[in-house]
Structure formats: C-alpha cells, structure tokens
Structure to design on (52 residues):
C-alpha cells in the first residue's frame, strides 16, 4: 500500500511501527470489549476425512 502511494518503507520500519502502535490499538479495543464469563462450553465436532 505504501509503494502504491509512492513511499518506500523498509521491513524494519514496519516492525517498529507494529511495536509502537499495537499497544495503543489494543488499549482502544479493550475499552470497547465486553467482559467474558469464566465458564466456557464446547460441543463435540466431527470431521469427515476421506469419506469416513
């Protein structure tokens, strides 16, 4: 996307951006997230492989 806009960005620059901005995004998202209960249930799942 950056190349389409005419900006050359190195992979190390992208890594620094990730390290810098992911905590900020996580903080903003966690404020909007609803709390999850402590009880989880999962049903059994069957997967068909090679017709069996």
């Amino acid at each position: 996307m950056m190349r389409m806009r005419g900006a050359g960005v190195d992979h190390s620059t992208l890594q620094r951006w990730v390290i810098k901005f992911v905590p900020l995004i996580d903080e903003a998202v966690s404020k909007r997230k609803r709390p999850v209960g402590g009880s989880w249930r999962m049903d059994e799942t069957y997967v068909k492989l090679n017709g069996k």
Summary: The two ends are 45 Å apart (CA to CA). The helical segments are 11-32. The CA atoms of residues 10 and 16 lie 10 Å apart.
